[in-house]
Amino acid sequence: MSGEREVVIAGSADVVGVRQLVRSVAVEIGLSLVDQTKIVTAASELARNALVYGGGGDVRIEIVTNGPRRGLKLIFTDEGPGIPDIEQALTDGWTTGGGMGLGLGGSRRLVDEFDLVSEPGKGTTVTVTKWSR
Amino acid sequence: MQRVPILKLGDVLIVSIQIDLEDQSVLALQEDLADAVVQHGAKGVIIDITAVEIVDSFIGRMLATIASMCGMLDAQTVVVGMRPAVAITLVELGLSLGGVRTALNLEKGVALLDHIRSATP
């Protein structure tokens, strides 16, 4: 893969598509099997969040470098209602969607870098990065 | 949407997940399995996830829901074949699947079901 890719998340089949694409890029940059599994799982959670809470969105997939290390950066964006209380949303077990409330907090634990920007009424952007070891 | 087939072997139902699970397929499997347990009077359910590359919170919740649902319908559930990377990821995600019995492979899953049933006449 050269450059970056953008995938629209509009239905539950797209969540599967995001998983498959993230897996192939994770293999390409040489992430270990466990790290591949972690970033794909985080991508699955965040893609579903964009779909269920954000009413759909997209993800940009980038390969980044830091000296000899390569990383996989995923930027999930939706234009949904946004998250009024980010601390609360990152707390395990807290949910408004009838899920288990592990999506955001759980994905934060599965990646190396996690950034969440949200404005009520405007949408949410979650950026995660996983580095090769 | 792809459906996951349910196989019957004696009074055990075997579900081997070979597709990349879409949320709708997960929900359909729960319903299909509940129906199949009642229809066949199954006493055991084995869910083989050998081919499943990731278990996220939605799929994890499905496994827990199926286990308690089948329990209410008098069938014991065993999840078999979890990959090591999946186990590591699930724990870090915060899902311990406490109420779900697991075994390393299909053979050990069948043995576990036999053991549970001989212990609870």
Automatic annotation (TrEMBL), chain A:
Q: Which InterPro entries match?
A: HATPase_C_sf, HATPase_dom
Q: Which residues form the Histidine kinase/HSP90-like ATPase domain?
A: 34-133
Origin species, per record, is Nonomuraea composti
List the protein's name.
Anti-sigma regulatory factor
What is the organism lineage in this UniProt record?
A: Bacteria, Bacillati, Actinomycetota, Actinomycetes, Streptosporangiales
Q: Name one Pfam family in it.
A: HATPase_c
From TrEMBL, chain B:
One Pfam short name: STAS
Q: Which CDD domains match?
A: STAS_RsbR_RsbS_like (cd07041)
Q: Which SUPFAM superfamilies does the entry mention?
A: SpoIIaa-like
Q: Which residues form the STAS domain?
A: 2-113
What protein name does the entry list? Answer: Anti-anti-sigma factor
The organism of origin for this protein: [Actinomadura] parvosata subsp. kistnae
